Amino acid sequence: MRRLVVFGVLAVALTACGNPGPAAEQSTIEVEPGSSSDGVAPVPPSSKPLPASTASTPRASGRCTAAVLAGEVQPGDPAAGSRYAKLVVTNNGQAPCTLNGYSGLQLLDPSGQQVPTDLQRTTDPGPTLVTLPPKGRAAANLRWTVVPTGDDPVRGPCEPEAGQARAIPPDETQPMSLSWDLGPVCGDGKIEISAFYPA
């Protein structure tokens, strides 16, 4: 009872001395031993290093789409019975984007009709995440045969010759338009294609 009376007298004295608010509105901050006495709890040191600044390395905005990619087929050196090329794409967007996996590819004749195309995926190289900065490039390897096989006719062109193609970036549905002037693809249009890699 005596302690309660003393506390009441102390509260009245503090209010009279210009305390800015009622005692009920005041909060208490516990100060750990060895901390500063200004009433602000210290921030404990962190054992984790601070993350590096990313101001100079913009983050990828998402997957590369046909809207930001420009594609072309670059021929390689021919071999006996085989032809090689690269499907090269360039990021024409304003932000980095990513590719991971294989492109779709469909050959077309000059009028836009489909030409037999049998795309076969290879694992050299296999899928890996590729980040393309603006104007960055990636490539996928292509290989096909020019020797008639299977049901291909042995006289004349083995398959109708394509004049253009459409390629679809990995995990997308809208295609890019490409030119194709690399002759017919034998073996019912079989083309081996690798995953994209930095070019």
Concise description?
This protein is mainly beta. The protein has helices spanning 2-16, 186-189; strands spanning 69-75, 82-91, 97-99, 104-108, 118-121, 130-132, 137-145, 164-168, 176-179, 190-193, 197-198.
Question: Your description of this structure?
Answer:
The protein is mainly beta and 199 residues long. The chain has a domain at 69-198: Immunoglobulin-like, CATH 2.60.40. The protein is 10% helix and 28% strand. It has two helices and eleven strands; from the N terminus they run αβββββββββαββ. Strands 1, 2, 5, 7, 10 and 11 form a six-stranded mixed sheet that branches. The radius of gyration is 35 Å and the shape is elongated.
Tell me about the largest β-sheet.
6 strands, mixed
Radius of gyration: 35 Å
Counted beta strands: 11
Instruction: Give helix and strand order, one letter per element, not per position.
Output: HEEEEEEEEEHEE
Q: What average pLDDT do the residues reach?
A: 79
Which class of secondary structure composition applies to the elements? mainly beta
CATH class of the domain at 69-198: Mainly Beta
According to CATH, the fold-level topology of the domain at 69-198 is Immunoglobulin-like
What's the number of helices? 2
Show unreliable segments.
1-57
Separation of the first and last Cα atoms: 85 Å
Q: Write down the overall geometry.
A: elongated
Residue share in helix: under 10%
Features:
Immunoglobulin-like, disordered N terminus, 11 strands, mainly beta, 199 residues, 28% strand, 3-stranded antiparallel sheet
